[in-house]
Amino acid sequence: MAHRGRRQQERRAAASVTTPMPEFDLIARIHARAASRGDVVLGIGDDAAILRLPPDRDLVVAMDTLNTGVHFPEDTAPADIGWKALAVNLSDMAAMAATPAWCTLSLSLPQSDAVWVDDFLDGFLALAAQHEVALVGGDTTRGPLSVCVTIHGLVEPRGALRRSGARVDDDIWVTGTLGDAAGALRQWQTGIAIDPVLRARLDRPTPRVAAGFALAGIAHACIDVSDGLLADLAHVCRASRVGAALDVDALPASDALRDAFDRETARALQSAGGDDYELCFTAPKTARISIESALFGCDVPATRIGRVTADAGLVVLHDADGGAWSPPRRGYEHFGG
Amino acid sequence: MAHRGRRQQERRAAASVTTPMPEFDLIARIHARAASRGDVVLGIGDDAAILRLPPDRDLVVAMDTLNTGVHFPEDTAPADIGWKALAVNLSDMAAMAATPAWCTLSLSLPQSDAVWVDDFLDGFLALAAQHEVALVGGDTTRGPLSVCVTIHGLVEPRGALRRSGARVDDDIWVTGTLGDAAGALRQWQTGIAIDPVLRARLDRPTPRVAAGFALAGIAHACIDVSDGLLADLAHVCRASRVGAALDVDALPASDALRDAFDRETARALQSAGGDDYELCFTAPKTARISIESALFGCDVPATRIGRVTADAGLVVLHDADGGAWSPPRRGYEHFGG
After folding, report:
1. Cα separation, B124 vs B138, whole angstroms
2. Sign of torsion over alpha carbons A120, A122, A127, A129
3. With an 8 Å Cβ cutoff, is B109 touching chain A?
4. Are A63 and B108 an interchain contact pair (Cβ–Cβ within 8 Å)?
5. Is the CB of residue B45 less than 8 Å away from at least one CB of chain A?
6. In b/e form, how buried is each residue of A221-242, taking b as 16+ CB within 10 angstroms?
7. Which of A47, A297, B59, B141 could form a disulfide with A51 if both were Cys (CB 3.0 to 4.6 A apart)?
8. How many CB pairs under 8 A join A and B?
9. How far apart are the first and last CA of chain B?
10. pLDDT tens across B49-65, in order?
11. Residues contacting residue B275 through CB under 8 Å, at least 6 positions apart
């Protein structure tokens, strides 16, 4: 860690010439709680971390930042911010079918607040432990609350799932349910009581790491649903030079979403709401049984929601009767969007 | 890149069902200008980047964030912010004797501003090109101006320089000159005209990558001077369980610093001012000729400024007459510190 956040304390320490450890030291606090792994040659505490990859693996790297008031409501609990900051990065590993290994964390805080950092670490490190991810470095700085994480994973050469692999006539699948996080946000924004099931989906998304890994070699293309199904599927279509036809009635919905919203609102949240961190992937029709079996093995449900078409760039939605369906504009919501 | 900064645009694109590319697209702008390397299997444009390491190298990772008003004055030119954001990370590679290879960039901006981003990239990519570093991913988000970079480098197993290797009776060396960046900051803070040579040192620090690499196998310990010589040397002393005795009159000063400040102020800036990004390293006395030769080869001057002592944790300064010297408190300055 680069210690930039404790410069003033360090300067004071240096000024006293005997350089005692500063009484309050965020980096030391983080270091003391971070677990390591056998492949971490050097972790927190130097100018950089040193990590050893197996010789037969490629490195997979993603980086995502969460800013207060933009990516999470200001009233989000520090532990949930910690969880989510890592979850959105793990979700990128899932979408690549990579096995996460190490992460770095840059934490900008308006002031040094040990209690806040401890709470933040409760969430961050709980999820890190679930995925055996070691926190190996980063920095703390003074500034508006912002959390930037870089995640590092491993994948076999040519083993990664990409956005660009979708082929015409592939099935389009999505894991879990859609619209829950956006539903919570809608309730938060309109000032009504937030359904706790929906709020948990917003605050503590489950990165589908095991599912992504299980889909390697089966799926043709994959992306995580962070910006909303339509936006993310559009990324896949652009990268693969294909189109998509979706059955809006097939989009999986949780009971909580169905209970909280009318059908049109729910459809809009499912098709355009972000922050679900489910996987949207395409695969040949012949792989249906393999997919169900692979995902059953990691206890992740998945639903077929449409098919890949040759109409490059065109995403068409229709309902069960075959009629075209367009999400209403008010469905296109994202916190701070 | 994870595209979080263009969610709204994407949602609008998706809403129109035909998903045209958004007119203004920061990620595409960055992608179009970023150079690649042969070991980049997959760069910007998917959920994560894929990178291939040589089988006989360890991965070295550092992450540093610059926040406006904390790490650079608000009037800093975007190109200088871009340069500095990468430079401070490259400096961490230098301190480890690692060869930088790839970086990711998370850019938080108050609003999408193509001109600003282009200017920023001018500085960022110019320095990246100098060091053959490929920008392979990251994200853009909405928020107060903040630049977070994760740098990835390569090092031979056991080839890295660490903070923990200093031994009693080692010489202590520093590259280049000290106090220039802090001198510029002092002038900026006191409202007087900033010397352009000093300002250039603040805005466009030169990461000592070649020097760090040349010192591998010769130096015992190394750190980059980001927080100020005393603070950074204290890190080395703590990690190595040793002390240091410095000759304050030996600290290298630029002509610009000498011209701009009285001797006491200059000493304070040299010993405690941050942001110089020179390397401070320790090496056995027997290595003096090797060091001069290695650094001559990369055209980087270095100065012996003291020696490592057995007084663990104690950094002592003395002047040429052997008298103890303590930097005045007003010398302990850093922007926003």
Report:
1. 14
2. positive
3. no
4. no
5. yes
6. bbbbbbbbbbbbbbbbbbbbeb
7. B59
8. 323
9. 33
10. 999 999 999 999 999 99
11. B181, B182, B185, B202, B205, B226, B334, B335
Q: Compute the average pLDDT of residues B250-271.
A: 96
CA-nearest residue to A5 within chain B is B337
Q: Cα A208 vs. chain centroid, distance in angstroms?
A: 9
d(CA A99, CA A152): 9
* Across B108-118, average pLDDT: 89
- The pLDDT assigned to A12 comes to 32
Decide: pTM greater than 0.95.
no
- Residue holding tokens 């106090």? B179
Per-residue confidence band for B69, with pLDDT thresholds at 50, 70 and 90: confident
Confidence of residue B157 (pLDDT cuts 50, 70, 90): very high
pLDDT the model gives residue A111:
85
| Residue ranges of chain A whose pLDDT lies below 50 | 2-24, 329-337
Please check whether residue B9 touches A, CB under 8 A. Answer: no
The answer to whether residues B27 and B3 touch, using CB atoms and an 8 Å cutoff, is: yes
CA distance B38 to A56: 18
